[in-house]
Amino acid sequence: MYSDNNAAAALLAALLVMPMAAAAEQAESRDDSDAQSIEEIVVSGRQLSLRDASIVVEQEFVVDVADALGRLPGANRNQNGRLSGIAQYRGMFGDRVAVSVDGLGLIGGGPNSMDPPLSYVSPMITGQLTLKRGIPGVATAPESIGGHVDAAIARGDFSHGERFEFGGMAGARYADNGDTTSLAGRLTAANRAHRFSLVGQADRADDLRTPAGRIVPSQLSRDRLDASYAYRDDRNEFQVFTGTLETEDTGTPALAMDIRYIDSELYGMNFIRELTPALSLHGKVGYNDVDHVMDNFSLRPPPESPMQYRQNRALGDGVVFALHSDYTMGEYSLMAGIDGRAESHDSTITNPNNAMFFIENFNDVQRDVVSVFAAIGQGTADSGWEFGLRWIDVSTDAGEVSFGGLMDMMGMNAGQLAAAFNAAERKLSFGNLDAVFKYSHRLTPDLAFNVDIGSKTRAPSYQELYLWLPLQATGGLADGRNYIGNLGLSAERSNEIALGLDWSGDRFSISPQAYFRDVRDYIQGVPATVMPANMLATMMSGNGALQFDNVDAEIYGLDLGWRYSITGRLGIEGTASYTRGRRTDVDDNLYRLPPLNGSVALNFVESAWSMHAELIAYDRQDRVSSYNGEQPTSGYSIVNAAFSWNASPAVRIDVEASNLLDRGYQDHLAGVNRVRNADIPAGERLWGAERTLSVGAVISF
Ligand SMILES: [Cu+2]
Fold it and tell me: Ligand 1: distance of its center to the CA of 313 in Å?
């Protein structure tokens, strides 16, 4: 009933449309008066070039901004809960993908990434989500081995005169599935030099329904507020902001616990100062802290034994900063800068039914990054290149750990692990050099190509190093296995090449890119050989522990987007993404990679309204990892349809039906249900939402 073998056929259809579109283009005469309005076709707000892929998030019916990322070629998200989407790009995810908000990295509080960076932006107050295609230049971010994504909060515009003008927006959305409601607003007072802005969004929802039953728990509650002041003149830009995030009682069914709360405060400022017309200085600094509690008994059916109740409080905080100069001289440009990040983490597990029980999961953990870079480039109208080097220094440390209330064999094994951890050298440092070369060249007015060659690194995360007791605090892997860290880990190094083409004709455009990543010392779990860890993990879960280790891997694939305007008002567009990842030291596939997938959409734009219908298809994924028993998934396809009406210049009404045909499907990246006594059995991959009708209205003033 739920299986669908049409996915491959649908995908094939999607790919077949491309050569047809290209042929049609050649058949069309080019003096068509409709040809001017190709920009108008961008009703879906998705843009693609050799260098970037971007999406206007505010136009998407999503609660988690990470879900919008999945609509860009090569990108996806691992979903552990409705507000816990983890960015994935070209087969890498989690800490491997550098995610920033307004150009600043964030410190997450949850050791299982319940609050990944994209959960810190609410969709209706987000402007653009931008993904660097190919290999991000060294100036983009340190530790961006897997790519870089930035989300910008829409804080409103400056006005033109001296007088202050008020402006803003108010929006509301409702989706019938799970009674999902969102309210958002922005109020701006600005003249040409000063801008005061207040933005906020509140989201609420009950459990989501799927054709296989309700997802328990998938309720959510999140409030996001941001207040800012910005100044600009001819030679300076300056902004200072403060914000809060309050998430409460939000389900993460693919993980062992649910969010009781995440309370974060964010502060930051950035500036650009033009020293001379050729030389400018760019600076940013941010601070945020997180107080987070999760448990395994409040939102989901509790464990059978009161002794298995667990509550985990995690604290995180830290500073990020970046300073760089930009110098241009004719065709040449030179960038040099310094940036860094200092973060601290603590996490303690308790049991409300046993006052004796506690585990210091992470105690006084510190991870500091200081990095310098320089990049030189040359650009003309037809070609450009860039070469950059970045030195990254990472130092980490962790305090001694202790525990209480573990009995008999459990206590004995945990005691051995704690003693070994406390006796070990935990102050570690990693020094790595990254290099990136990028070249692009325009062959004809319509056709350009690019080559990126890079060598990038990532030092181990604090979980990969300091998880001393076998637990599932793994930065959101959600494979249900208990892991222990490894104090002897080396940094990963990915040597990568990406080749891209970009064809932009009058009516047809297409931008494919192929890539190959050879990753030395790729960090993933392997069966642990530490006896007390295996005994503990077996007692807790029936499976031995996995230990983070350096292995070797390669990831390659191809992704593309295309668009064809049939007339000025009617267009079709699509994406396709293929990723293949495997270990090269032993015969196994990499964990949690999406199968071949693609989309085809039909857009129709009138002056006051527009329509968008899309088919999204995923092939089956049977190239799964055996080291952690990953399950395969079947292919599927779903249809979404959306209608948008500009009732007046200030009022926009949106209606969307997602999963219009009410298909049952399982997204390979949605994770496996870890909740017992729920509609979807524990251990089964979570199902996608059933047909969902959404309406929204946005008033601008
Ligand atoms: Cu958590």
Answer: 8
